[in-house]
Amino acid sequence: MTSQNRKYLIISIACLALVTVFAFSNSCQTKQFSILDELSNYEKTLDPVACTLLAEKIGQLNSECKAELEIPDCG
């Protein structure tokens, strides 16, 4: 195995490990980043269905993780 192949193998394993950690991570911080991303997308579309789903996720995050994210007004 050449050094270049070894280098690609190590990088591939590291990337796979990172993806696995993030995919199976259920931490509050990961959930919060995900919700913030969804909130950003919602602000672009103002889709009422997305708002309702987002409000439910924020409510769940706030209760499970002692977060204080503001729940959007979907009215």
Global outline: elongated
State the domain count. Answer: 1
Note the quaternary state here: single chain
**Structural class category:** mainly alpha
Q: Report low-confidence residues grouped into runs of 5 or more.
A: none
* Radius of gyration using CA atoms only: 18 Å
Helix content: over 70%
Number of DSSP helices?
3
Give the SSE layout.
Blueprint: H1 3-24, H2 28-45, H3 48-65
Helix pairs in contact: 2-3
What does this structure look like?
The longest helix has 22 residues, at about 5-25. By secondary structure, this protein is mainly alpha-helical. The chain has one domain (about 5-65). The mean pLDDT is about 85. It has helices at about 5-25, 30-45, 50-65. Helices cover about 75% and strands about 0% of the residues. The protein contains 3 helices and no strands. It starts with a helix and ends in a 10-residue tail after the last helix.
